[in-house]
Amino acid sequence: MAFFHGKAALIKIGAVTIESTVSWSLDVTADTVDTTAMGDDWKKHETGFIDFSASVEGYAKTARATVAQLGVADSALVLYVDADSFFTADTAICTGITETANKDDTGKISYSFAGNDSSGLAYT
Amino acid sequence: MAEAFYHGKSSLAYWNTSALVSVTDWSCTLTADTAETTAMAASNYGKTRLAGFNSGTASVTCLATGDSEVGEGDSHVLELLRGAANALGGYAGTATCTGWSFSEDKDGVATITYNFMWDGEVINTVTEGSD
């Protein structure tokens, strides 16, 4: 068993790498419904749909066309843990972009994604 | 033009074609609404969605120098420049000032933060910088 160092991580939209990223995170959830009935001692649940959201943080770049990425839903999102291991969604929607400029710092940018894949998320 | 890092010390903010003075930082947040399209099907595992409307907000913080430069409720073109040259890009569009907050601390100088809501399309092309 090996650890993963973040320096080997990578994020791709389709086949294109998002340049100058510093971190990413992935949240996966499963809807559940309560199936507890009278007579039970403990609650029981049935699983519904799987969902995920992801965020990517990085350095902003001059001349980068960010607005055109907003709401785009036709590309795969690939979150690399390292060069060989990654999470893939066939499609994800870019639901948010925040760019910040501060007088004492490098320009920063963050992206938010929502899952859009009926087969869920795959790990390779 | 090739993409490059930029330092915020060279960034600028313009409101109604006038440069806001003593800006310390700006932020632009854009969001895309989504509507779910997940439907019943034994083979469906993950949720699916359609993209809806785009919208966004922005904020600009300045060292306070007196009266507010931006009036609450005013609507004008807001440009947030990554650097002095237009080619570096940024964010531009019509925005409404939804309010501002003034703060002062015994250990610092007074600052004012203007909050904006973009009103319509936002583009990366800016025009108030140098060509």
Written overview of the protein:
The complex is a heterodimer of chains A (124) and B (131). Chain A has strands spanning 10-13, 16-17, 21-34, 45-59, 77-80, 86-89, 92-102, 108-115, 122-123. With 124 residues, chain A is mainly beta. Chain A has a 5-stranded antiparallel sheet with strand order 2-1-5-6-9, with no helix packed on it. A 4-stranded antiparallel sheet of chain A has the order 3-4-8-7, with no helix packed on it. Chain A is elongated, with a radius of gyration of 18 Å. The model of chain A has no long low-confidence stretch (mean pLDDT 92). Chain B has a 7-stranded antiparallel sheet with strand order 2-1-5-6-7-4-3, with no helix packed on it. Chain B has one domain. In chain B, strand 6 and strand 7 form a beta hairpin. Chain B is mainly β and 131 residues long. At the A-B interface, strand 4, strand 7 and strand 8 of A face strand 3 and strand 4 of B.
